[in-house]
Amino acid sequence: MASMDECPGAMHCTICLDSEGEVVQRGCCCRGDAGAVHLACLIELAAHSSETRDDSTGWIKCSTCMTEFTGRVEIGLAEEWYSRVEARDEDDDERMSALIALACATWRQGNYSEAEAYQRKVYEIEKRLHGADSEVTLHAASNLATTKGTRGNYVEAAEIQVAVLATQTRILGEEHLDTLFTASSLAYTLSCQGKIAEARAIERRVLDANKRILGESHPTTLSAACALAASLGEEGKYIESLELFETTLATHRRVCGSEHPDTLDAKMGLAVTLLRKGMYVKAEATYRDLLVVQTRVLGEKHPCTLISATNLAESLLRQDRAAEAESMLSPMWKDMHVALDADHRCTLYTAASLGDALSILSQPDAAEALLRDTIERQTKTLGPVHANTLRTKTVLGDALVRAGAVTRGLAMLSSTLALQLELLGETDFVTRVTMERLKRWEAKKPAQSDDRATSVETV
Hints:
Elements: E1 24-25, E2 36-37, H1 39-53, H2 71-85, H3 93-108, H4 112-130, H5 135-150, H6 154-171, H7 177-192, H8 196-214, H9 219-234, H10 238-256, H11 261-276, H12 280-297, H13 303-317, H14 322-339, H15 345-360, H16 364-381, H17 387-403, H18 406-423, H19 429-444, H20 450-455
Antiparallel strand pairs: 1-2
Helix pairs in contact: 1-2, 2-3, 3-4, 4-5, 5-6, 5-7, 6-7, 7-8, 8-9, 9-10, 9-11, 10-11, 11-12, 11-13, 12-13, 13-14, 13-15, 14-15, 15-16, 15-17, 16-17, 17-18, 17-19, 18-19
């Protein structure tokens, strides 16, 4: 397989003008020949600028387009930079800048556990040197909380974000860029906890402020637009969500390029909304196209790649292609344990999809065991009425009916549907799936199996 950022052999490094060796794309907004470099040449250029002009921006940003590097170039530069300054005292400014760059690059590579360790170091040093309420310490605390949320520690993340946001608002003002970043991160955490209305209110405010301060085409504004579009989709406002995603995605492509990680995130959000709206064929096509690029740019085991693959499998399940879906989900579920965590929201979502596939493929015992374990974990980490927990209960109710425990299965589907209608609404994707399954089984009137009826307990 070709390296994920490799350019065609005819490309020349824009620094040394040589085509020998591995020429890669910088991952900035420079495209084609303009973005082609040897990583070693870029390292040498950044080091020279840092040593002779006391300018360390070359380790982080492209000197041509002035946007930050991404992908393997970003992590390669960050690792090299920090290795050169790590031995200095902790209060050295360049050492701190390099550590922050390494933490951010590691996070974007999907290595969240390692990133959290770096960010904790940054926070502890900044707090010791500058105090708990300094601008840099608050920013470090916000970054640390974001990574905790990304790893699934939503309660702890939200507690930190609420406290940091209050202090930033008091000291920096509610429209300072650091304050808006923390607000955006808090909105994401709330969304993951199922508090969609609260998240959407914050996201609208953040988007409006970013438009006014940075402009409508700034990458930060575009990311804020994607966050709002995702919340609209989760609320069942699919048309509004799709329109915002499509507009934002087009701007991302124009500003950042079609393979920039932010562009891929926007396309990922669009595909999720297509899936939620029930446009399964189009969602499948979008995910397949997206996965080709994510695998090349991010790697096949990056959390974002694995999440897209899970949703592709979900689109296949909805098209009655369970065998194809199961062949994808089984290895992905194991990969997610490594990339994220056994109790991470996305890992558990994948487990529920796998349980669904196993049930459809007439593996009732394996399906039931997996689904019950998933519900127990989701109840503990997300809560008993979180949308994802209710989704898994729908899948388990359906699996029980398939296995012959008809009375218990239909009762679970009915009680779950009542909660979904109350909490999520009838337009919600999972609510609609539950309605469809309950209607189908009530129409079929499947036979009750006495063995299953007596052996299966309710969740």
